[in-house]
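Form P-L/3: holo structure prediction, ligand heme C.
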Amino acid sequence: MKLTRSITLWIICCITIFFIGCGDESSLPINEDIKKEVDIFTEREWAVIQRLSPLPATPPPNPTNRVADNPDAARLGQMFFFDERFSKDGTVACATCHSPFYGFADVEATSLGVGRGTRNAPTLLNVAYNKWQFWDGRADTLWSQALFALEGETEQAGTRLQYAHLIKRLYQDDYEAVFDPLPNLADTTRFPLEGKPGDVQFDNMTEKDKIAVNTVFANIGKAIEAYERLLISRNAPFDQYVAGDLDVIGIEAKRGLKIFIGKGVCILCHDNPNFTDNEFHNLGVPQGKLPEDTGRYDGIKQLLDNPFNGGGPYSDAPEIPQRILNFLEPTQRHQGQFKTPTLRNVALTAPYFHTGEFPTLNSIIDFNNAGGVPSGFVGMREGTLEPLNLTEQEANDLVEFLLTLTGQSPLEYLLRKPDLP
Ligand code: HEC
Ligand code: HEC
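OUTPUT (holo model):
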């Protein structure tokens, strides 16, 4: 008797809690359009989804580059981007590995420039929304990123003195319309034809002349950044859906979105309208046959050592970047961490991960679904990564969702190699 009564009481209690719970949900204001989708998403899920769209129309300002939003600088930067003479042997430009035909990436697992690199080329679409550049974040601005590529052994492999002379020979008027006049480069005893730090030709120059050449070099990067800031790709089917066009994506993609923000916990790192937390994580991606890669650990060291970082003498606004740099110090935690990449336009840029060893989006989901692999990577895998127990259909739904993130192409003139001097 007593037992029946307490069971009854317990049931009433549960029912009450259930209704209070429901009441909580339906008491939130509900938009008419969204109401049609309530069989798929709760109000709370909609609130989360709205964090992912739209991508702001313009990237955050970059005060470290005075000409970041100068159209003449962008026009110049577009020429530099496509000009293969900006390389050791005249055969490699930025566009070699960041081709407009492949979502401003390439199809290689690891890129081939003057040499073969050890990492996969990321897309440059929406790159100006990134807080850090490179998989290891060793650049804190787009302009300093470009300088790594211009002198990198496996990328363009030229030297800053070579590039300064190239500007003098081919681009002087366009350059001086945007930046201060060039130094007197005609004097090749003061300014040898080639060289960078570590080469005797450069190291033997006076401090003042080194600074003059470094300034030209930094300005090349600043013009390229002005161009890259225009490579914006927004208004993907996913954005149109969130804006209220409910039929623009299919039911599979909608289910995939639900997994993305729920069971798949993807949103833990791929958050914000650019689908990245702008942070670094160790997912335990295996290095395969590639050399050991410490990722963010070495990235922080290189960032702090770089005179072209946002806090350095070539920055147009060093104070705030320097304050951020002051907090950075490589620790064991950073070993094997890589940057969370954007997922916008991800369908255009196979293969995937920093190693480029994952050929399809399905292979990424399989990797995540299994909670990673047991070994073959650097450092410690992040503790939050566990098997997801997704069914095959759920995995396919997630891929369908990722396919809805392909945005509109940047303006046509930005995709073409301009006439070069
Ligand atoms: C040989 C191929 C190659 C060339 C040439 C090249 N890149 Fe890259 N780029 C890559 C690879 C590979 C990475 C990733 C490397 C890493 O993270 O260490 C990358 C990374 C980047 C990034 C960082 C993107 C992100 O999301 O982190 C930007 C920006 C970029 N490149 C712009 C340029 C520009 C501008 C040029 C020309 C000055 C250029 N690249 C030349 C292959 C290349
Ligand atoms: C703990 C943070 C974290 C979580 C959770 C996470 N990712 Fe990622 N994601 C990353 C990082 C970091 C990388 C780059 C890893 C690397 O290359 O070493 C990445 C890479 C990717 C890539 C490859 C993109 C490219 O351009 O190479 C895709 C696709 C992706 N994630 C989708 C997902 C999906 C879908 C989920 C949910 C099932 C998910 N991620 C969960 C952090 C995360």
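COMMENT: The pocket of heme C (ligand 1) is lined by residues 92, 94, 96-98, 111, 113, 117, 119, 121-122, 124, 127, 130, 133-136, 142, 145-146, 149-150, 155-156, 224 (CB under 6 Å).
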